[in-house]
Amino acid sequence: MTRETLADTLEEIALLLELKGENPFKIRAYRTGAETVAQFPGDIVALAREGKLEGIKGIGDALQQKLHELASTGSLAFHEKLKAEFPAGLFDLFDLQGLGPKKIKALHESLGVDSVVRLKALCESGEVAKLPGFGAKTAEKILEAIAFRESNADRFRLGDVAAPVEEILESLRGHPHCLRVEAAGSYRRAKETVHDVDFLVATGQPEAIIEFFVAQPWVGRVIAKGPTKASINLTSGLQCDLRAVSNAEYACALAYFTGSKEHNVAMRGRALERGYTLNEYRLAVKEGSDAPEAPVFESEAQLHRFLGLDYIAPELRENTGEIEAAAEGDLPRLVELENLRGTFHNHTVASDGKNTLEEMAAAAIEHGLQYLGIADHSKASFQANGLDEARLRAQIAEIRALNERFRAKGVKFRLFAGSEVDILKDGSLDYDDDLLGELDYVVASVHNSMTLPEAAMTERLIRAVSHPRVTMLGHLTGRLLLEREPYAVDIPAVIEACAEHGTVIELNCNPWRLDMDWRWWKYAVSKGVKCVINPDAHRTSQLEYLAFGIRLARKGWLRREDVINTLDLAVVEEWLGLDPLP
Ligand code: DGT
Ligand code: CA
Ligand code: ZN
């Protein structure tokens, strides 16, 4: 039982009561309860389990009992009973962007909508547009939301698959007949979302490997199983394919199954030009060609070399110029995790983070970083407990005092006092210039009014990045992968404004964001814009997100010199116009 389950259950009860048209005060009580549970500073799950919720503001008597039942037994009879009153398919409607309980209730009652499929049909037939309070525009918006959901069905965020994939690799590596193993496909190319994961094993005993693979505890379902191939679903639903090849075939197979398909097609074309055919197992002399016999390749690097190319890192294999660059010796030397010296966008308990300044600093030191920027939310982000002017000034003082303590102890580490300042609707900032001037740096981000028309949103961001106190632009498009579309904004225009004003653009490493998108970095670099790789950590463990950021930075062709937080502390201090600490 987790805090999230407790809060989500209360939230779902509120939705269900709303669907039933219950008393708004009762509904509000569940909402407030959900929020209180989500934000409560202590171990709310333990308190609920032990029935010790008395006196907590926002959780009344009725909710105390329900939370206790849920936390101690794992389910709540009241919730189950409510759910049973509605068709199961109705709950899927809540996942559609822009569709709230009021609309769902109307759809359910007037048109008998009980599933996404039925809703789609009724939007297309024009029935939904005829409902009072809906109209053609709403029906169109609903269809767009359904299309977005459909295009994301069966896709998974890179950040969500990384842990299970590494676990599977680890266990395959431990098998005595596994000579080499890799997770190929879009996972290896560091796509921000993947459809399935393609494991490749080099072995002399394919059947033993296949049997081992399908018998693991994380297997939810075996889809197919043959002598050299198997497909399974993990319990999470993620599909994993495994292919077993001989050690001699491994290099060509790895290149093939890493893809992308477009990259493969271009590579095959290049092989053909040289008199060879290239498939998933080998490079062979083409019929009628007098090219010499190809060797057995031990690695992808050897294969690339044989085709007259420098080694192409997996992240680059999208056929967006990497083959041409490899032929010319022009591939960038990509940034690596070890190059990072610090990061700038991190939260603490002062806003919506879970750890204190000291704890965040200790974790950063543990990661071998020389500096950590603290950028808690500003006051307009009240839902995230954003800091007002007085609290921010107090935090700045606290950071200065901590830095002195590091110095006194001889620890070579510095906290930077920053803020993640809200970009208000008109592009102005949430603090005045005096206060911004007291900060070491400023991250500017959009957290509200995300549905502005493209021109207004673009103007808003350009105004913000043009502000002399703004150091970097946070999560440029506001997307939440597989959940929320990026807002409408002219990205090249924003990049150009950043170039003009020397504003750095963030690569937000939160696996839900990975924003700015990797496809734009080449353009940004061509304009002279620098990248900052920021974890947006809300707890110490989320500094680990930096690893995802690095993978996406590499995918964006970024080199060490393109990333500002690869700079040593002294250089960063100079860049920010700060005196080094005495
Ligand atoms: P995904 O799974 O949709 O996130 O993306 P991928 O790239 O992992 O695609 P997947 O799993 O269908 O196939 C893995 C790799 O196998 C793919 O990146 C390239 C290779 N491949 C698959 N189908 C074809 C094909 O029709 N032609 C060529 N040349 N390669 C293919
Ligand atoms: Ca795949
Ligand atoms: Zn933010």
What would your notes on this structure say?
The protein is 43% helix and 12% strand. The chain has 582 residues and is an alpha/beta fold. The chain has four domains: 3-151, DNA polymerase, domain 1 (Orthogonal Bundle); 156-247, Beta Polymerase, domain 2; 252-328, DNA polymerase, thumb domain (Beta Polymerase, domain 3, 2-Layer Sandwich), CATH 3.30.210; 337-575, TIM Barrel (Alpha-Beta Barrel). The strands form five sheets. A five-stranded mixed β-sheet has the order 2-4-7-6-5, with helices on both faces. A five-stranded parallel β-sheet has the order 13-14-15-16-17. The structure holds 2'-deoxyguanosine-5'-triphosphate, calcium ion and zinc ion. The site of zinc ion has 5 residues, from loops.
Distance between the termini: 49 Å
CATH architecture of the largest domain: Alpha-Beta Barrel
Share of residues in strands: 5-15%
Widest sheet, order of strands: 2-4-7-6-5
| CATH domain class name of the largest domain | Alpha Beta
SSE-based structural type: alpha/beta
Can you give the helix content as a percent range?
40-55%
Low-confidence stretches: none
| Ions, cofactors and other bound molecules | 2'-deoxyguanosine-5'-triphosphate, calcium ion, zinc ion
- Average pLDDT confidence is 95
Tally of distinct domains: 4
Spell out the CATH superfamily of the largest domain: Metal-dependent hydrolases
Radius of gyration: 27 Å
Question: Overall 3D geometry?
Answer: globular
What fold name goes in the CATH topology slot of the largest domain? TIM Barrel
